[in-house]
Design a protein that fits this description.
The chain has about 240 residues and is of the alpha/beta class. The chain has a 6-stranded parallel β-sheet with strand order 3-4-5-6-7-8. Strands 1-2 form a two-stranded antiparallel ribbon. α7 links the parallel β4 and β5. α11 crosses α12. The longest helix is centred in the first third of the chain and has 17 residues. It is elongated.
């Protein structure tokens, strides 16, 4: 196979589907770990095989096996993942939920489906959350507002939040009509539209803002009245809260 260099144009969802299937040896197991349907996994693999112009898997009685090209490609993927995550372990949702349960945490689960919609993702994630008995300890969020509407249709008792990165058409009025518990605006918008905080509060909406990595901004946003800060340095956020 001589098309490895084309892999820079392949979405991470295809890499991940390939890697998880290669490690799981079955579409059913990969589907469960990826929190997408088995047909969606199959679609991703077929797309990857078409892009690379070579088969990566074949089926035997005892499961799905890697072809010789698939084995070679797995080496590249594993090397890429090590570079991508800088040596940190990439965990699956079930592993994360076990950590949440063991440590009695509350977690925001962002569904990364605003570009690729991942059919069945919402129900799969919600089912796994229920399996761990963590419905009250999780809020689901996404930039894909239709996805959050689907979550509410599947189970209205799940807590959901709408992510947005730029002002919407009549943002305040848009949020007035939603049936979700929270809004997740980029923090830079709240700095420029501080009145949104009081407007959203009047509607009974929680305000969970992202991605705040600056100590001064954290302090200012907390003083404004946001309910949660999403950032890359929880230890810094904790320090700011303790010093208020």
């Amino acid at each position: 196979m001589d098309n490895y260099n084309s892999s820079s144009n392949i979405g991470m969802n295809l890499y991940r589907s390939f890697y998880v299937l290669a490690k799981s040896k079955s579409y059913a197991e990969a589907s469960e770990k990826l929190c997408i349907s088995a047909p969606a996994v199959c679609k991703n693999i077929k797309q990857l095989e078409n892009l690379l112009e070579t088969p990566l898997f074949y089926k035997e009685n005892d499961g799905t096996k890697l072809t010789p090209d698939g084995k070679e490609y797995l080496k590249y993927i594993e090397q890429g993942l090590k570079m991508f995550d800088l040596g940190e372990k990439i965990i699956f949702l079930d592993e994360l939920l076990q950590i949440v349960k063991d440590n009695k945490l509350f977690v925001n689960l962002e569904l990364k489906n605003n570009y690729v919609f991942y059919e069945g993702l919402e129900e799969a994630v919600m089912n796994m959350v229920n399996e761990f008995g963590l419905k009250d300890d999780v809020i689901l969020s996404s930039f894909n507002h239709e996805s959050m509407e689907l979550c509410k249709k599947i189970d209205p008792s799940f807590k959901t939040g709408l992510l947005f990165e730029s002002p919407l058409m009549n943002t305040v009025e848009y949020m007035r009509g939603i049936k979700h518990e929270a809004v997740h605006p980029g923090y830079y918008m709240l700095l420029q539209k501080p009145s949104w905080v009081s407007e959203f509060k009047k509607m009974g909406l929680e305000i969970n803002t992202w991605t705040v990595n600056d100590e001064n901004y954290m302090r200012y946003l907390i003083e404004m009245g946001v309910d949660a800060i999403i950032g890359n340095f929880p230890d810094l956020t904790s320090k700011v809260l303790n010093n208020l």
